[in-house]
Fold each of these.
Amino acid sequence: MGLLDYFRSNQPKSSANVAKERLQILVAHDRATRGQPSYLPQLQQEILAVIRKYVDVDLDAVSVNYEQEDSREILELNIVLPDVPSAPRI
Amino acid sequence: MGLLDYFRSNQPKSSANVAKERLQILVAHDRATRGQPSYLPQLQQEILAVIRKYVDVDLDAVSVNYEQEDSREILELNIVLPDVPSAPRI
């Protein structure tokens, strides 16, 4: 719920002037025990593979942030999607 | 970057006392054009399938929020992971 509030407060509602198709994915992992190997980098590759089944996204258009502190890891994917035509071509 | 700041400010750093393994996934989609069918519900199923390759998570442990407003959709998955032993069983 807090994340939704964050999006509401930080993102401008009138994004029509930007007119960019964007996808933002955020994965946060709170670990109960430290020292375990992280599976988020592998998870990232598989999530991207899933997304590419839905949208024709170039990997150059994906920016990735990965951070780790104490028992929390955060993976952030920001994807600028290609422009889509507003009406189907006939 | 903003999302990372959000996580840092809102989450207690000393989550060791909670000791729960948690995974939170957030997908935000800004659409350039309205009226397109959403693929996020299908994407949700596939992301969950990917996660279940890494962790043995019961679907009962997944709570889902989906919101749509104007050209923005937000899908939020909150997953409580099963307790893991701190040392391998021999």
Amino acid sequence: MVTPFDIADWIQGHLLRIEQVLSVWVGQGAPAGLGEAMRYAVLDGGKRLRPLLVLAARHAVASADGADASLHSSCDEAALRAACAVELIHAYSLVHDDMPCMDNDVLRRGKPTVHVQFGQAQALLAGDALQALAFELLVPENSAIPHNIQARLCSVLARAAGAQGMAGGQAIDLASVGVALNENQLRHMHRLKTGALLEGSVLMGATCGQANATALAALAQYGAALGLAFQVVDDILDVTADAATLGKTAGKDAAQDKPTYVSLLGLESAQRHAQDLHQQALAALEASGLPDTRALAALADKVVHRAY
Amino acid sequence: MVTPFDIADWIQGHLLRIEQVLSVWVGQGAPAGLGEAMRYAVLDGGKRLRPLLVLAARHAVASADGADASLHSSCDEAALRAACAVELIHAYSLVHDDMPCMDNDVLRRGKPTVHVQFGQAQALLAGDALQALAFELLVPENSAIPHNIQARLCSVLARAAGAQGMAGGQAIDLASVGVALNENQLRHMHRLKTGALLEGSVLMGATCGQANATALAALAQYGAALGLAFQVVDDILDVTADAATLGKTAGKDAAQDKPTYVSLLGLESAQRHAQDLHQQALAALEASGLPDTRALAALADKVVHRAY
């Protein structure tokens, strides 16, 4: 049964919940300086796309199995924990990525980056501690979340974050400065660097429920298309937007001679490519057989039409 | 039943197995440069104290529940995975700790440190990917390891590694350069910085079996005493050993004006303290009620009597 649904309300309500629990969970019990750096890295400013994808995928899957979609069942607790965990992985990757030995960026979400604010050593540790916290959130003691779901969430997140996922993509990126990649190579890099965690978010949400194989495969396709669309749009915005809108340094890729979809395809073709991927994502939702994929569809729209 | 047992054989056999599986698991499927840096950081040279603690604790617990102590049961697979996971956390922490923004060390286990060999960016990513891999190892798909054990292992490891464990201790260490810590503050720092992961190793091994509450509490005490003894001996060796024996730069703590047990207590008192902690660890094993704690006792001996 598909109930009346206001997507703006849905996003707003879930964003609020995500911010609430992140604020409770991040930095708790940490030594003062470290906790402060962790909270600075995570709170106040993120778009929370990955947590919203987790919750939207959980919403879509729950629409099929008729489960209570409130945040009170154990599976919704699992989804909320997964949503925060994936955001912590994303946040830690930004902290490390901004460091002088990587992208050497001083501005993020309109604020000084973590190492500028707290020093490089604290930034390094804060990123490390955020990754550990991500996994800690998924395996709470004395929780009603079934252990098989806890283990599966850890597994999906670890693969998405590690050498065959995000970290692997960053390593390929590192080796690609000044190198002429073709479109296949560029796609492979982005599939790992940003796609793996976005797709992982969708799969983690689907894990907090009883998605059948068809739905799971379709959601994975949605996640893959969305992940690539995200990157293509990122490359477009790096050329078309200014730093004030982006909240980070614009024009960096070209300045660093990094291959992008715009440098490879040209601006117009890149924009068409983003539209194609958007359509692929929506088609995958159709094919999923899930009755209510409106939140996932709305997030795909946001990814493609965002201004920053 | 306590069977005849040669501790040197036990350690040798288990070391071999640890090296074998680390060699298979580390860097698998990673992009070339990243995988190489990960393997360089982990393989060839570690003492493997933490993995041995996991396996020795598993051995002690299995001696009580009469389980088959071979490496073929699901719980022994769990212990082997836990052993490798904890070593990966240790290895990643060394990689990040050696970086210029932290300890700026160029020598580790007698070889150039990872960032010297592969560059800082690759070292940063290799550390990050090793942490993710540690958690991935604990939650294998299609394994006979019960999901509650998988989840519990993740939980213990995440806490031991994170802001309330190792990373937290490193942050306190960072804030302690040139500061006059008293013995309580120094102990608190080391409990987190090195103690948490050593104690976590023992608890992870105990998790791969059916330890009762008395045994678990005693093993935690053993781990805490051993963890502290390890650090006291480290401080002693930093003064008494040379770089060739240590495989790393000697005399660094004093040079960096870092508080140590030797600077706080003097060399002789520090040596007596290490002996006391050694006795506490052995007394905890007695109190555990576990029939066969010989491997754990032998590892405590090794920690206190090591020359590097």
